[in-house]
Amino acid sequence: MADGPFKVSRRDLLVATGAGAVAGGAALVLGVWYGRRQERFTKRVPSRSQPFAPSIYLAIDGDGLVTIWLTRSEMGQGVSTALPMLIAEELEVELDAVRLEHAVANRNYGPQLTGNSAAVRKLWSPLRQAGAAAREMMIAAAAAQWGVSASECSARDGHAIHGPSGRRSPYGGLVEAAAALPVPAKPRLKPDDALRLLGRRQPRLDVPAKVDGSARFGLDVRLPGLRYATIVRCPIFGGDLAGFDAASVQGRAGVDEVFELDGGVAIVGDSTWAVLSAAEVLDARWDGDAGFDDAQLAARLERGLEAAGHVAREEGDAARWKSGRTVQAEYRTPFLAHATMEPINATAWIRDGRCEIWAPTQAPQGAQRMAMKLTGLAEPNVIVHVTLLGGGFGRRAANIEVRDAVLVAKRVKGPVQLVWSREADVQHDVYRAATAHRLEAALDSEGAPVAWRHRVASPSLMGRTDELDPLMLHGATELPYGIERVEVSWSSVASPVPLGFWRSVAHSYNAFAIECFVDELARAAQQDPVALRRKLLQSAPRHLGVLEKVAAKAGWGAPLAAGLARGVAVHGSFGSFVAMVAEVRRGERGVTVERVVAAVDCGRVVNPQIIEAQIEGGIVFGLTAALHGRIELRAGRVVQSNFHDYPMLRLADMPEVVVEILPSEEEPGGVGEIGVPPIAPAVANALASLGGEPPRELPISHG
Amino acid sequence: MPRHRFELNGQPVSVDVPDEMPLLWVLRDVLQLTGTKYGCGIMQCGACTVHLDGEPTRTCRLPVAEAAGRRVTTIEGLAGDSLHAVQRAWIAEQVPQCGYCQSGQIMSAAALLRRARRPSGAQVEAALAGHICRCGTYARIRRAVARAADALAVAPAWTDEDAGAEDG
Question: Would the CB atoms of A78 and B147 count as touching at under 8 Å?
């Protein structure tokens, strides 16, 4: 069996779908403290059988089995491999010898939100410390049993080892003795040159279950007596239910109950098909303001560009605007849906004073708090199990479907799985904001920009109208280019469209506008786009580093086949830095992206192969948006409904992708989102260099 | 309620469901075989692909009545005593990210490699054109299909074992 770089081994990735995440019999349990909880942690190692023990990441049982609790959700970004690597490295156990469980929602874990590309950034130290503390306790326990000094002992592969005598003791046999020892407050982390896992390519622990059908996503939760439900909602944003005819679906095979709920109509039945097909024929009437559409949106964005706005950054001498000629350009980006492959769902069961939830959620604690509010139950009686997520991209931090599931579960007996059809997903998402950008620059006599103004107009994620929503300017405020006068501002645009976090959030559109505009400046000054960036990034070494790397790797400046053009973009986000060169052709089939070279500086590396995969995936996600993505509004509602009119990049459109990871000693940066921002401007810049009007509106096919 | 009989992963099954209930939901909700996924419900994304008499088939719009008397193989039944060559290649190339679309992708890739021992790039693109992966694993899928083809080519002959249980 030729299996290439990775051995094939069957592992069980256990997710909390059934009996809950509490493992009995864990004799030694360790956690890592968060500031004021230190005392609690060091005082006593809590048992996992106490469901509300303070933050806990790992346990070792008498057989030496290591269980690791994931406090972030696995949505494809690889946390169920990266986080165990941090523990296994320090604990000195093999990665394929650990058992994983998704942690249930519990505030003693600290924040469990999966987002902001923060899992490794936040847990790099705590998980290594948790592993190291356990290792030191195992060694101390063994040393005491052997009557030797702990300094003569080490650990490897789940064993404590006494160097001089060669004696070895498996962790399982040390558990009881170790549990009686104090937890070291400052365990010693392994020196970099002793690391065996971190920084090296490791196979993902979740892959085996994802090729044989055994991986359990939210929609795969199956419970005794499970019924299925969906909610039909007003298609007009801000609208409401005017009435419905229950008889239009009552009596259909498999439909049990139909009732008004939360401004919509809930349908409960004995199969997903029964309720989704009933939803299609439900006779419901809706009230709402059907006036909002794309033309209104465009007019409001336009007005936003002219409005006074809120200043986020203003520095340098305003006189620089008088330096010479100015260049101006405007950019537009549309609303976008997430379209996670796994349709939106959550399962809830309220019984005996308890509410149990199974959800593919990025925000289990948010789900818990929401359910507490809806049910009036206390925290210990609301149990949120996290399943695997069939894609998240920010959508699954919203928990709308958890609310749906709990509301339905309050009305019916037994467990219920709440499912949104793909159509409901596309038409009732929390969308990436539509934006308009006006960029202006003044160039000196050499053609170098000496003044820069960036105005963004958009609806507000934080719902702000009278003050700055700084989220909308992420990636714009922190402009890295060395320009003397910089002005960045934002104005709020009213819109009934609900907004949410969408992979890389504001970076996705701000990088597009900024990086396209830098190329406009290069053209205006008849300079090479890489040369101009190089000149402007002298005080931004990490941006410069990825720019130089990508230029070298992509052969920037070398001749290309006829009809092909290169475009470059560089952008920093989530503590990391990415530059891309796209090789693009405009042909009869439209725009073809043939090759993308990416250079990545994400600080210390945990698992290079997951970083490569995330950059590949970020490119596909960003390219889908750049080439196709557009949510249109007509009569107050979303026009698109499914993949036939909200198309996704497919295999034939996949460019060759080359990823170069720069070695770095900096702290780990984010990885999951950083591949998205640079791809749209790199492609647009390549197209601009092919001649004609540069693309200034996304999707490119539309502009 | 009409009774529908078909062969599922080598075993005879019978279900009492409406004729028009799509096979996808019979598998997932009635038989509790959840490896086959719902993605779009309109045959656009390929997540619901199984083999029907060996042919890759979308099940989200396939009435169960049309499966009557036929052989259905799902992702759970693709492996024989060991994993199918395509599944092994998927592991070796570390294809999945979220993994949700991969059952469908694997079923189509396995069917392709039965039809074409050495599929061209265009054949791979055509066979997988109906599948969406939102995580963007396409480059790895291409490599994995090539790897599986290589593994099958060095096998002495196309055997039941290579193909998993399905042809057995």
Answer: no
Residues in chain B within 8 Å Cβ distance of A643 = 40, 42, 44-45, 132
Q: Which residues of B touch A200 (CB under 8 A)?
A: none
Extended strands (E) in A387-470: 416-419, 435-443, 449-458
Q: Which CATH superfamily is domain B3-77 in?
A: Beta-grasp domain (3.10.20.30)
CB–CB contact A4 B147 (8 Å): yes
Give the Cα separation of A255 and B18 in Å (integer).
13
The class (CATH top level) of A218-288+344-419 is alpha beta
Q: What gap in Å lies between CA A373 and CA A407, rounded to an integer? A: 11
pLDDT score recorded for residue B156: 52
**A389 touches B: beta carbon within 8 Å:** yes
Question: Looking at CA atoms only, how far is residue A418 from chain B in angstroms?
Answer: 13
pLDDT > 90 in chain A, percent: 84
Q: How confident is the model at residue A109 (pLDDT cuts 50, 70, 90)?
A: confident
Q: What is the crossing angle of helices B138-154 and A608-627, to 10°?
A: 120
Inter-chain contact A613–B99, Cβ cutoff 8 Å?
no
Distance, in Å, from the CA atom of B63 to the CA atom of A73, rounded to the nearest integer, reads 35
> Is domain B85-167 in CATH 3.30.230.10, yes or no?
no
| Whole-number pLDDT of residue A242 | 97
Domain A28-211 has CATH 1.10.287.3510: no
* Closest Cα in chain B, distance from residue A191 (Å): 29
A307-335+431-689 matches A218-288+344-419 in CATH topology: yes
| Domain map (residue ranges) of chain A | 28-211, 218-288+344-419, 307-335+431-689
Q: Is the pLDDT of residue A660 over 80?
A: yes
Q: Mark yes or no for CB contact B44/A644 under 8 Å.
A: yes
Give the β-pairing of A637-638 and A633-634. antiparallel
When pLDDT is averaged across residues A200-222 and rounded to a whole number, the result is 97
Q: Could you tell me which residues come within 8 angstroms of residue A183 by beta carbon, excluding any fewer than 6 positions away?
A: A30, A41, A42, A45, A133, A137
**What chain B residue is nearest to A4 in terms of C-alpha separation?**
B92
Residues A253-277 have pLDDT tens digits of: 999 999 999 999 999 999 999 999 9
**In angstroms, rounded to a whole number, what is the distance separating the alpha carbons of residues A134 and A139?**
9
Produce one character per residue of A367-388: b if its CB has 16 or more CB atoms within 10 Å, e if not.
Answer: bbbbbbebbebeeebbbbbbbb
- Token pair recorded at residue B49: 């692909």
| Nearest chain A residue to B46, by CA | A341
With contact defined as beta carbons under 8 Å apart, do B23 and B59 qualify? Answer: yes
Do residue B75 and residue A208 have CB atoms under 8 angstroms apart?
A: no
Question: For A307-335+431-689, CATH number?
Answer: 3.30.365.10
Secondary structure class of B126 (helix, strand, coil)? helix
